[in-house]
Design goal:
The chain is an alpha+beta fold and about 425 residues long. The chain has helices spanning about 25-30, 85-95, 110-115, 155-160, 195-205, 300-305, 310-315, 350-365, 380-385, 390-400, 410-415; strands spanning about 15-20, 35-40, 55-60, 65-70, 75-80, 95-100, 130-140, 145-150, 170-175, 175-180, 180-190, 210-215, 220-230, 235-240, 240-245, 265-270, 290-295, 315-325, 340-345, 370. A hairpin with a 5-residue loop joins strand 12 and strand 13 (about 220-230). The two termini are about 30 Å apart.
């Protein structure tokens, strides 16, 4: 049997069987005969969240897209579970619509991203999952269940970010906004001390703002500001950072060819909000990732706390990205009920070193009740994770209600839910 791995190659799936149904009807027939099942999307998680000792279900063939403009005040699109943001976005743009936020990579599946509360950035932008207004999923007994924010308000916020625990999601409906144009400007060398009193001003300087750092020299090496085209012109200096006249990659010395356009040139939203271009497949993914969410009000102190470990972190790090995410009401969203700063680590493929560092980083961030990204690497104990989410017990009850036999459970969920 050929080994299956995640995108990064750091995790080998235990599942010995992969099925790839082509329709909801076929999926409904399959599930009642299977005892342990997990959906497999774009494989961009870095841990065992999508693994199972039983059968993995690939949703790659679920490629439908359906636009609904019957309510002009709130257009929506319903997409199959195999659709990626890179496939949806250009199609939406041609129709005159957009999703309000996108992740750094457009190559991830929409359903997988929403199930783990994956996000983009922006002080006024919620995570990708917050755009979901309805879900279709098939339960272990083969029943197709439709849930929506309007029809099921008591459980819907728990069903969107559900970590694959409730069933196999076949499609999601996303709320849309009118298409818009974005211009991206990049600065270099922003001193960290500017964040102490101006953190909110810095992260509010554009529709989406990202700071990159190697944790050396008390600075952000780069600042990427994505602004709505037509907004005020960007200055030559930004909180002592210098505007760049050549396109840059977040990693010094790397070609910027696969990065989205910069230099203030406006373009469609889907060609600027991600950091990387849709027409470039990411590298083999020889990297590891971790990410922690802290209250935005504690952002500067959290950054300073991590910075104390710079001598330990930097030798094993490609880059860290700092981003903001608006609060939402999704029970297991890392930004649930609090405006958040995300501290994202892209590590070199050195698992032993990374796993030895994670407890140190988490100890530094413990005073800020840091919530780790569900699809990335972390060491936080399950008991602590449960305490970080006020609606966790409600989520546990929802899992028991929709999957009483534990068909969609695995070791990852067992540790979390028990």
């Amino acid at each position: 049997m050929m080994l299956r791995t995640n995108w990064a190659g750091n995790y080998i799936y235990r599942s010995g069987r992969l099925l790839e149904p082509s329709s909801v009807a076929e999926l409904k027939q399959l599930l009642p005969a299977l005892s342990h099942v997990k959906a497999l999307g774009a494989r961009h998680s870095f841990n065992s969240i999508a693994d199972t000792p039983g059968t993995q279900i690939s949703l790659a063939r679920f490629k439908s897209k359906s636009l609904d403009v019957s309510d002009p005040a709130q257009p929506t699109v319903t997409v199959g579970a195999g659709v990626t943001y890179g496939e949806l976005a250009p199609w939406l743009h041609v129709q005159g619509f957009a999703v309000p936020n996108m992740a750094s990579l457009p190559h991830i599946s929409i359903v997988g991203a929403c199930a783990t509360a994956t996000h983009g950035s922006g002080v006024a932008n919620q995570c990708l999952s917050a755009s979901v207004s309805a879900i279709d999923l098939v339960t272990a007994d083969g029943e197709l269940v439709h849930l929506s924010r309007t029809a099921n308000p008591e459980i819907f916020p728990g069903a969107v970010v559900a970590l694959g625990a409730l069933g196999i999601i076949t499609s999601v409906t996303l709320e849309l906004v009118p298409a818009f144009q974005v211009a991206q400007t990049v600065y270099e060398n922003l001193p960290f001390h500017e964040l102490e009193h101006s953190l909110l001003d810095i992260f509010s300087a554009g529709y989406s703002v990202s700071l990159f750092t190697d944790w050396q020299q008390h600075r952000a090496t780069q600042v990427w500001i994505k602004s709505i085209a037509g907004d005020a012109a960007m200055p030559e200096t930004f909180f002592q950072a210098t505007r760049q006249t050549a396109k840059l990659h977040p990693l010094p010395g790397h070609s910027a060819e696969n990065c989205t356009e910069q230099l203030g040139d406006p373009g469609p939203w889907h060609e600027r909000l991600p950091h990387f271009r849709m027409d470039f497949t990411p590298s083999s993914g020889a990297e590891l990732q971790s990410e922690y969410f802290v209250p935005l009000a504690d952002g500067f102190n959290a950054i300073r706390a991590v910075e104390e470990l710079r001598g330990r972190i930097t030798p094993h790090l490609f880059i860290t990205e700092l981003r903001t995410i608006a609060a939402d009401d999704l029970w297991l969203s890392m930004a649930y009920a609090r405006e958040s700063l995300a501290i994202h680590f892209t590590w070199r493929p050195e698992p032993d070193a990374v796993f030895s560092l994670l407890p140190l980083i988490e100890a530094q961030l413990a005073p800020f009740a840091a919530r780790p990204h569900w699809g990335k690497l972390f060491a936080t104990a399950p008991a602590m994770l449960r305490q970080l989410y006020p609606r966790f017990n409600a989520f546990r009850e929802l899992v028991s209600r929709l999957d009483p036999g534990g068909c969609f459970g695995n070791d990852y969920l067992a540790a979390l839910l028990d």
